[in-house]
Amino acid sequence: MTVSEWFFGISFxxxxxxxxxxxxxxxxxxxxxxxxxxxxxxxxxDGIGPAGWxxxxxxxxxxxxxxxxxxxxxxxxxxxxxxxxxxxEPPVAAAPAEWAQIPALQARRPGQRSLDEEAxxxxxxxxxxxxxxxxxxxxxxxxxxxxxxxxxxxxxxxxQRGIEAVRKAGDYEPLAKAAEAIMGTREEAEGLWMGWxxxxxxxxxxxxxxxxxxxxxxxxxxxxxxxxxEYWLGQAQHDIPERxxxxxxxxxxDITSIFAxxxxxxxxxxxxxxxxxxxxxxxxxxxxxDYVPQVDRAIKTGETVPxxxxxxxxxxxxxxxxxxxxxxxxxxxxxxxxxxREENKRALLEQExxxxxxxxxxYDPHGAQMTPLPQYEITEMVxxxxxxxxxxxxxxAGRVPAGQPCPIRxxxxxxxxxxxxxxxxxxxxxxxxxxxxxxxAFWQWDRNQERK
Length: 452
Fold this sequence. Notes:
Layout: H1 3-19, H2 25-46, H3 50-67, H4 77-84, H5 95-99, H6 115-125, H7 128-142, H8 150-169, H9 173-192, H10 199-233, H11 241-244, E1 262-263, E2 269-270, H12 272-275, E3 291-293, E4 299-300, E5 309-313, E6 323-325, E7 334-339, H13 341-349, E8 355-356, E9 362-363, E10 369-370, E11 375-379, E12 382-388, E13 399-401, E14 410-413, E15 422-424, E16 442-445
Antiparallel strand pairs: 1-2, 3-12, 4-12, 5-6, 5-12, 7-11, 8-9, 9-10, 13-16, 14-15, 14-16
Helix pairs in contact: 1-3, 2-3, 7-8, 7-10, 8-9, 9-10
C-alpha cells in the first residue's frame, strides 16, 4: 500500500476511536461498512500489504467493540437491573387485564371514571419525581455505548435546566421545550432503527422509546397550561372549527392512559413499569388518595391563574377533564366531549353503506377504513383548585353553606343527615337542613365521587 493509504488507515482508526463515544451507533455502522468495502476493493485488485492487515485488524477490533456489551458507568438502577436479567415476554393483553397489576384499579369497571385516580395522575405526571424519571431515561440512552452521546446528553441537561426553572421561578416553558426536543430525536431514532443490525441497536430503540414516553407525557400535560389561555384570548376566536375544537392536552379520562399499556416494536402490550421505569421505585398507590375542591377560589377562563396545580371544572368530570394550570398565565378553556369514540362509531354505522367487520374496524360505503374519533367543543369554564385531602387548607375547602348554589357538579353530603349523599348539578340550590346545628349546616364535597 502507498503512503497515502497508510495515512488513510491510521487516520480512520484515530477518527473512529476519538468520536466513538460522542456519536450515535448508526453513524459508526455506516463508517465501518464503508471501510470494509474499501479494504475488500483494495485486496481484490492489488492484494493486501502490511498496512492493509493493520487496517483490517483495526476494523475487526472496532466491529467487536461495537458489538460488545455497553458500559453503563452512570446508568440508573432500573436500567442495570433491566440489562442484567433476561426479560420475559410480556403477555398480550387488553388494557383491562393490565389493571389487575394495580390494586387501586381492580374494582374499576371499563369506562368508569374516578376523580381520585385522574387527580393522582395529573399530580404525578407534573411532579419532580416524574421529571427525574425522564432524566434517568434519557441518561440511559446517552450512556448506552459507554460514554455520553452528545444529543441525548444535551437532553439530560435541558431537562435539568427545566426542573431548575420550575423550582426557582415556576416557569414550565423550558421543561416543555426540552420534552418536545426529545420527541423529535425519538422520531429520528425510530426512522433509523434496523433490527438486522443486532440486539444492541434494538436496545437503543427500546430505551429511546422509554425516554419518548416520558417526554410525550410532559409535553401533553403542560401544553394546555402554557398555551390554552392565550389561545382562548386570541387565535381561538378566528381559527377553523376543526382546529379550535381539538384539545391541546389530555381530554376526558385520557390522563389515565398510562395504565393501559402501549404497543411497541413487536406490537405487543407492555406494562406500566416497562414504559415508565421509575414506577419500580415509586409504585402506584394501592388506594388513590382523596382530593377536595377549594370552592372559595374560583377563576374563569382567561383570568390569571393564582396557583400552580390541578384544577377541576365547575361542570364536573362528566364529559370534561381536570387540568394542570400554571400561576401567572391565563386560565385555559375546557374541551367538552360532545361525542365519544363509541358514540361516533355508532353514528357512522347508522348511515347507509357503512359497515363494521368482525374485529371492530369501520368501513365507509366505498370500502375505505375509517377511524372514529371523539368530537370536542372548546368551552369557557369556571375552575376550582383541586387539593389533596390531607393538605392543611383542604380541611374546610369543600364546604358550602346550605341554601347556596352548588359550585361543582358532583356528589355532596351533609354531616347533619344520614344517607344524605346526592348528585347535584352545577348552580343547583343545596337544600336547607332542618334542625341542624350551626356548625353542621353545610354541604361538603363527598370523598367518593363515583356513581354507586
